[in-house]
Amino acid sequence: MQITWQDITGPGTLDDLIADAQAAGHPDINARLIHDWIAKGLLDRPRLRTRHRGSDRAEHSADQRRLLLLLLDKRQQVSRLSTLAQIPLAMWLWWDGYVPTRQAQRAWLTWVGRGKRSKDVAREGALGLLEQACHELATPTAQNRFVRIVSDLGNGAVLTVRGRAELQDAVRDVIEPDSVFAASGLTRALGPAQIPMTTETVVGYAQAFNAAVRHTLEGNVDVVLLEKARLIHRASMADYLAQRHELAAAAGELESLFHEPDLQEQFDQTGRQLLLTLGLELTGRRPPRRAP
Q1: pLDDT recorded at residue 183
Q2: Residue-wise over 162-171: b if at least 16 C-beta within 10 A, else e?
Q3: What φ, ψ does residue 236 adopt, rounded to 5°?
Q4: Residues in the chain with pLDDT < 70?
Q5: Nearest Cα to 68, choosing from 1, 105, 16, 110?
């Protein structure tokens, strides 16, 4: 019978973690991999135990032992290690006591990554923003242009005066296509209590993604900033959940946008939500009342 996280009742050493993994059906787990996962923030560093004479071996908490089993289970469903970093990030973002901020900081750096990975993160952010803002009649050309420009910003491209004008034009083409809005002069909004989905709002989100990725790659996202972002995000989501039913009722055909996220969605969206919250804090903007 394989071990499950419910069988973990206390702290354990590195050898215990390896034994847990093997008992759960993962014979490939060894000390080198555990140390690599600690360095990347998937697991936390063990707590040193000292005695009057000599010292005992360092111990990992029971929560970290359970986290290892969760990571091993999810590892079979993802293709990249960086994707697994969202698991400790989500636990840190929503539940106190399981993952310390020092670990979340390393997990955040792993999720954002560098090179191709950070480019993928920027594109994911652009696609998420497009999903929230795009009008159903926006053309594929307009959508592709939007994703390209916002992705470039997410990769740290400098927003020049000319670049901002191009961004505004690209945003306008996807949220207010001429075929619908040119003659009416209307402005889109998602519900009466929502921040209006205007061109300036979406431009601000794009700049927020740019700021968050750039600060991360420059090594400027410390534990203090992360803690602040967590408090802001929790308050924003609590505000949204408190009004969710009212917003859904007022949204008509868009009611599905205001559903309560399940546990899997919270894990899958953690990185993108934190990216936006960090960026909005860095650029001095208010967080959205509904996570994109």
Answers
A1: 43
A2: eeeeebeebb
A3: -65, -45
A4: 1, 49-56, 178-197, 237-266, 286-292
A5: 16
- What's the pLDDT tens digit per position in 129-157? 888 788 888 899 999 999 999 998 877 77
Residues in Cβ contact with 245 at an 8 Å cutoff, skipping those fewer than 6 apart? none
- Give me Rg for the CA atoms of the chain: 22
**Single-letter residue type at 124:** E
Looking at residue 195, what is its pLDDT? Answer: 46
Q: What pLDDT shows up at residue 184? A: 44
Tokens of 149: 């420009």
What is the pLDDT, as a whole number, of residue 191?
Answer: 34
Q: How far apart are CA 201 and CA 204, in angstroms?
A: 5
How far is the C-alpha of 95 from the C-alpha of 116, rounded, in Å?
31
Residues contacting 154, CB < 8 A, separation 6+: 121, 122, 123, 125, 126, 209, 210, 213
pLDDT value at position 192?
33
Q: How far is CA 75 from the centre of its chain?
A: 18
Tokens of 30: 């060894």
Q: Contact 119/155 with Cβ under 8 angstroms?
A: yes
Give the pair of three-digit tokens for residue 215: 């600060």
